[in-house]
Amino acid sequence: MRSILITGAAGFLGSHLAKDLVSEGQRVIGVDNLSTGKKSNIEDLLNHDNFVFIQADASSPEWLRLDSLSDVGEIYHLASPASPKFYQAAPLETIAINTIGTKHVLELARRTGAKVLYTSTSEAYGDPDVHPQPEHYRGNVNTWGPRACYDEAKRLGEVYCYEYFHRFQVDVKVARLFNTYSAGLRSDDGRVISNLVEQAITGKDLTVYGDGMQTRSFCYADDTIRGLKLMMEKDAASGEIINIGNPSEYTILELAECINQIVGGNCRITFHPLPVDDPKQRRPIIEKAKNLLGWEPVIDLQEGLRRMIQVYRQ
């Protein structure tokens, strides 16, 4: 049995994926430098016979020389800060992991014959002037701003994937992930759902930026993980970019009101200046995922929030 490598294995999505694969009897190697991931996320796996953890930075070449990587058959490249709070605090590291780190992963796959799934982002669409967003839309991204270190690095990571697929026949698939959430999201993550849930259950004012009319689409982590696994499995996804996200669209104000209602509190909603380059709207077209993968999300926002809030309360 060949191993499955997950970069960013101690992060939010990486730890979910690692637990899911190990529970299926797969042998998993997790790599993480613990810059934003937490070892506590994979604590249940650390003594498991089918899991090996390597603390290393995937943008550094040293980890590629490890003998334990010689039999890797699948690589999920999830390593990267994903919250503006974290990637704006470490912009050069964010650029490195999505460019140099992606090249390292692709070189490893070229050497071992592994399949690669690169997790890109809906941020590749920037502040879109096409709505909703199909995969062929080229985006409206500001290269000269505080979000560019993430947006543009992810886009360049996609270019690396394109070149390795066409020049070296590396079996690579690119997932553009839209906002993903669940109970595993750090309460100090800085993303809108974790912020609002933490504020609501502690009775604080709910922080909404701008007028709250900007929209997002929120996909529960279980649905996202299922989509990633299907992408890895399906030959039809090779050499493709596929949106993985929930096409249901909500304003941030609607999200805040929904969380407040579920918590049963009477939190006050306060409005604050909108961050620079904050997208006005975001919603995926997922016809490609439906047709190539047979995938679509099944957990709606209300159910996902109830699950998340229950765990956060504990």
TrEMBL record:
Record-linked PANTHER family: UDP-GLUCURONIC ACID DECARBOXYLASE 1, UDP-GLUCURONIC ACID DECARBOXYLASE-RELATED
SUPFAM superfamilies noted in UniProt: NAD(P)-binding Rossmann-fold domains
Transmembrane spans: none
Organism: Paenibacillus filicis
Pfam families the UniProt entry points to: Epimerase (PF01370)
Domain NAD-dependent epimerase/dehydratase, residue spans: 4-245
Protein's UniProt keywords contain Zinc: no
Protein name: NAD-dependent epimerase/dehydratase family protein
Lineage of source species: Bacteria, Bacillati, Bacillota, Bacilli, Bacillales
Keyword Signal: no
InterPro entries reported for this sequence: Epimerase_deHydtase, NAD(P)-bd_dom_sf, UXS-like
Keywords: Decarboxylase, Lyase, NAD
Source taxon at top rank: Bacteria
Cofactors: NAD(+)
